[in-house]
């Protein structure tokens, strides 16, 4: 099997906490968070082309090509390196859009890492992260590939090691637009900052959660149900929410107890991205 035959995983992330600690003069919010990857993932297959074109084989419904992050990532890598090879990109989508799990950002990161390998462009992680940051603030963490305390607009990392955990991730039937949450006058923007070294498991909360629950009552309903099992939190700007368990069996039992109509997945926390070494070799 060659690299061209591979399925390249694009894992989800959850935010173990997410605080808004200020705002820059240009309007960007200053954040502190801990990103953790989980083993729920989209998958990408790349097919070589002889005509030099970059083609998205299965466009996502409702997503124009000019805004599709997989296509934009491939084009950005070509622009940064002068690569001329063509490729057809086949994305197997499992992560919900507007779910706060970083699906689009992870897809973009995996596209960069996969094509860096397949096209032989030879960029290291930091160079790929710089390209990724221009695509979206969450793209670099997936290229970084480890659990990390992040701050700034989400691009400054300090590695952390969360304890092993299994997560029940529930998926409310709504897509939450991130800009809508950050525009809200109800959003708290002055949570005190901490040093990365002071983070501990269980610390903090998600400042975006109250706004998302107010605008999307389904998020609040799913959170309320999850909280019977512990300190449930929303991930990112929503809509997905999670709670942790010490083992797969108890997480699976909670999944089976979901009320009819509620959707969810059990996923393990990942300490490393599956592509961490191979994609920059």
Explain what you see.
It is a single chain. This protein has helices at about 70-80, 105-120, 125-135, 140-145, 180-185, 210-215, 215-225, 250-255, and strands spanning about 10-25, 30-50, 55, 85-90, 150, 155-160, 165-170, 235, 240-245, 265-270. The protein has about 280 residues and is α+β, with helices and mostly antiparallel strands. It has a single domain, classed as Ribosomal Protein S5, domain 2. α1 (about 70-80) runs parallel beside α2 (about 105-120) and α6 (about 210-215) crosses α7 (about 215-225). The longest helix is centred in the middle third of the chain and has 16 residues, at about 105-120. It is globular. The mean pLDDT is about 95.
Give the biggest beta sheet.
10 strands, mixed
Q: Number of DSSP helices?
A: 8
Subunit organisation of the chains: single chain
The CATH class is identified as Alpha Beta
């Amino acid at each position: 099997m060659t690299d061209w035959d591979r399925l390249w995983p694009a894992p989800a992330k959850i935010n173990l906490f997410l605080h808004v600690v200020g705002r820059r003069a240009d309007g960007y919010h200053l954040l502190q968070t801990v990103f953790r990857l989980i083993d729920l993932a989209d998958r990408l297959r790349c097919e070589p082309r002889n005509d030099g074109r970059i083609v998205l084989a299965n466009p996502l419904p409702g997503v124009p090509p000019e805004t599709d992050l997989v296509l934009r990532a491939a084009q950005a890598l070509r622009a940064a390196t002068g690569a001329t090879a063509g490729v057809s990109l086949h994305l197997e989508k499992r992560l919900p859009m507007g779910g706060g799990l970083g699906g689009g950002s992870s897809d973009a990161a995996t596209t960069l890492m996969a094509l860096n390998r397949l096209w032989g462009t030879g960029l290291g992680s930091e160079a790929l992260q710089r390209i990724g940051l221009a695509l979206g603030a969450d793209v670099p963490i997936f290229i970084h590939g480890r659990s990390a305390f992040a701050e700034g607009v989400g691009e400054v990392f300090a590695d952390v090691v969360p304890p092993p955990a299994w997560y029940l991730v529930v998926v409310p039937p709504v897509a939450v637009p991130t800009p809508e949450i950050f525009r809200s006058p109800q959003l708290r923007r002055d949570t005190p900052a901490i040093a990365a070294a002071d983070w501990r498991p269980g610390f903090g909360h998600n400042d975006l959660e109250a706004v998302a629950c107010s605008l999307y009552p389904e998020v609040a309903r799913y959170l309320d149900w999850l909280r019977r099992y512990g300190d449930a939190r929303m991930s990112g700007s929503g809509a997905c929410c999670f709670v942790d368990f010490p083992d797969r069996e108890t997480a699976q039992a909670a999944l089976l107890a979901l009320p009819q109509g509620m959707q969810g997945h059990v996923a393990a926390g990942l300490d490393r991205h599956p592509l961490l070494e191979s994609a920059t070799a």
